[in-house]
Structures are given as C-alpha cells and as structure tokens.
Amino acid sequence: MRLILLSVFSFFFSLSAIAQNDEDLTGRKAPNFKLVNLDGKYVELNSISGSGPILLSFWATWCKPCLEEMAEYNKIYEQYKDKGFILLAVSTDAEKSVAKVKPYIRSKDYKFAVVLDTNGEVARKYYAQQMPFTVLIDKNGNIVYSHLGYMKGDEQKIEKIISELLEK
C-alpha cells in the first residue's frame, strides 16, 4: 500500500514539475529588462516597445539548434524589419563562453540586436530554462506566443504570427 501511495505521489509530483518547466506565458505582460548589447550600450525592452512586434530569442553559442534557429529568424527579420518588427537575440552565454558571441554574430553578418544575459536574470524572468526559447511580444507589450526548442519549420508559425501582428 505504501508503495502504491508513493508511486501515485511521485507521478503527480513529476506532472507538476513538467508543468512548471513548460510555463505558458501567453497573455502576460512582458517583463521589462535592461541588458548590454554587443557595443556596450544598454537596451531596455520598454524603450523599444510600441512600434511593432518584438521577438525575443533566448540562445547560446554552444546550442546547435539555437544557431540553426537564428539563421531562420534572420531571414524573417530581414523581411519584416522595415515594417516595425524587432528581433532581439538574448545570449544566455555565461562568462566562460560570452567572448564567442560577438565574433559569431559578426561572422554571420546578422544585423539584429543582440544583448547579453550572462547571469541568466532575464532568462529566469521569462522562464527560459532551456535553449532555444522564443517569446513573441505584440506592440502593446503583451506576450502572444512562447515556444521551447527548435525544429526546422517552427519559424513558419512565428512568421505567420508576426505577419498577422503587423497587419493590426
């Protein structure tokens, strides 16, 4: 009997842990933050909000799916940047690997903004416990979509949502 109760308890505990890791942010106000970009200047979310949708892409140089996703997001950025779309790549590289961020971004000739979250403070605010993690914010500062992981084709859903937001 004790074994059965223990098994039931473990099952429900693991379900709640899964639910916490798959936090749905949709409908919430995007938490503000202020991080340093690759040029050493501060970028504050609230100061760039309002003109159009903002895509936060939490990534790291050691994360292969992140790098694949960023290449696709760059295409979307190039297509919609003149319409008010902002792509903000939030590097979660720690102090040991952060030196790789700037050379990587420059080698790919990415033009979107990249900010450094070396202590993970912003990632925690957005429940980005694993990489890549995507958050899409509308022009009013509300989170309209969030997604963990990347598989080829995921960017199509993001592009569709961005296009719809730009039409509003």
What's the arrangement of secondary structure elements?
Layout lengths: L1 H20 L12 E4 L4 E3 H4 L5 E6 L4 H17 L5 E6 L9 H8 L4 E4 L4 H5 L7 E5 L5 E6 L5 H14 L1
Parallel strand pairs: 3-4, 4-5
Antiparallel strand pairs: 1-2, 1-5, 3-6, 6-7
Helix pairs in contact: 3-6
Question: What is this structure, in a nutshell?
Answer:
With 168 residues, the protein is an alpha/beta fold.
Distance between the termini: 58 Å
What kind of oligomer do you see? single chain
Per the principal axes of the C-alpha atoms, what is the gross shape?
Answer: globular
Mean pLDDT: 88
Helix content: 40-55%
Largest sheet: 7 strands, mixed
Structural class: alpha/beta
Give the strand content.
15-25%
E-strand count:
7
Helix/strand order, N-terminal first: HEEHEHEHEHEEH
Structure characterization notes:
The protein has helices at residues 2-21, 45-48, 64-80, 101-108, 121-125, 154-167; strands spanning 34-37, 42-44, 54-59, 86-91, 113-116, 133-137, 143-148. It contains six helices and seven strands; from the N terminus they run αββαβαβαβαββα. The radius of gyration is 18 Å and the shape is globular. α3 (64-80) runs parallel beside α6. Helix content is 40%, strand content 20%. With 168 residues, it is α/β, with parallel strands linked by helices. It has a seven-stranded mixed beta sheet.
